[in-house]
Amino acid sequence: MNYKYYFFDFDYTLVNSEQGIVGCFLKTLAEYNIPAKPWDEIKLTIGMPMLDAITQVSGLTDPSKKQQFLLTYKKYANELMTPNTHFFPDTITTLNKLKEAGCTVAIISTKTRHRIEDKFKQDGCSHLIDFIIGSEDTTASKPDPQGINMALERTGAPHSDVLYVGDSLYDAGAAQNAGVDFAAVLTGNTPKQAFETYPTVQIMNKLSDLR
Question: Hey, what CATH class is 5-16+85-209 in?
Answer without folding.
Answer: alpha beta
